[in-house]
TrEMBL record:
Protein name from the UniProt record: Uncharacterized protein
Keywords: Signal
Lineage: Bacteria, Pseudomonadati, Planctomycetota, Planctomycetia, Planctomycetales
Domain of life: Bacteria
Organism: Gimesia algae
Region forming the signal peptide: 1-22
Sequence segments annotated as region (Disordered): 142-181
Signal as UniProt keyword: yes
Length: 181
């Protein structure tokens, strides 16, 4: 009975190891011909908070931000935002000297060895907050999600009714979010 149990445990352990080995990404030992160019370009990007601000303004037009910032896409406070626990914290404000219709369009993030590591971009108006994206240097290679489905778990539109209430002064500007059962 004891040896049968040991055999079962060994088979289970083998299955776990095979699963883990099968899920490990394979990385070639030698870099491809153009990988040094990508690495050099990526490492030279975003050496200051001002560069990140300019890149985010190029990435997110004011029209895109207004498209994103509808009541149903307000950030659900039960979802985690970026925690700056490595490197140095950088921050910036987008469209600082332009009328935007928002109280703030700002980002914060971390820099490691003088380069952007990761960032969080958010918008606020009154008591309302929209988390546009959390990303890193590689995020700039992809288009931003300007109009994601508001039924996602980190949007107020999908939150339980008790988390949808907002005591904000901008309530006359918004249609109430859809109440979900």
């Amino acid at each position: 009975m004891c040896s049968q149990r040991k055999l079962c445990l060994q088979i289970l352990n083998l299955a776990i190891l095979m699963t883990m080995w099968g899920c490990t990404p394979s990385v070639p030992d030698t870099p491809s011909g153009n990988s040094s160019e990508v690495t050099t370009e990526t490492q030279s990007k975003f050496a200051s908070a001002a560069e990140v601000t300019a890149a985010l303004e190029a990435r997110w037009s004011l029209d895109d931000i207004k498209t994103y910032c509808v009541p149903e896409r307000r950030h659900n406070p039960t979802c985690q935002n970026l925690v700056t626990d490595v490197g140095v914290t950088w921050e910036g404000t987008l469209y600082e000297n332009e009328p935007t219709g928002f109280d703030s369009i700002s980002w914060y993030g971390t820099a490691v060895e003088g380069r952007l590591h990761e960032y969080s971009l958010g918008v606020s108006r009154g008591e309302n907050y929209w988390l546009l994206e959390i990303g890193n240097v590689d995020s700039f290679d992809r288009q931003p999600r300007v109009a994601p489905d508001p039924s996602g778990p980190c949007f107020i539109g999908s939150a339980p009714p008790e988390n949808q209430e907002s005591d904000n002064s901008d309530s006359d500007l918004f249609v109430e979010p859809v109440k979900r059962e």
